[in-house]
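step: validate -> pass
step: tokenize input -> pass
step: predict -> running
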Amino acid sequence: EIVIIGSRIGYSIKLNIFSVIVSVPLGLLLGIWAALKKNTMTDHSISTMVMIFISIPNFVLISFVMSFFCYNLQWLPSTWPPDSASGLTKVLGYIIPVFCLSFGSICGYCRYTRAELCEVMESDYLLLARTKGLTRRQAIVRHALKNAMVPIFPSILAEVIGILGGSMILESLYSIPGIGRLSVTALNYKDYDVLFVDMTIFT
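step: predict -> pass
step: emit ->
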């Protein structure tokens, strides 16, 4: 079982590492942008899109993306490229799964960052910093962002720790030979030894 899992874990780790690299900065930047533009059209637009997109299930998103970009436009491969594929094909093969894995996290970080930063920007100590002569930008950079990141950092750390896990639905739909798809295969073939080891180690 360990040998089987060892041959699959690399795919899931790579996908999750790339998704963290994409989702964390994008989510934080969108959240900061929305907070700085609070109660403006920009803030309302970002918040509305986040509320809509965060409710889209993973399997619906990847099905739509595959249908549009793989079958209609034929820009991206419709399945995970084999090891014998060219370098460009392998790179293109990462786009859909990484995007779909990052999508929910981007929305979550954006909403969480906006809420925390808005709360910090309305605090008394930030007002005191402004009265001492700091500009709005200096107060935000030196104080607001630093304090807003304190409750956000544990969620980022938890996502980094969770890179060993795989997405069962996404890996199955895109034929990725990772941990998530292994769990589905083991369940279908009633291979409970592999399923037990998989779930014990990575969940």
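step: describe -> The mean pLDDT is 80.
step: cleanup -> pass
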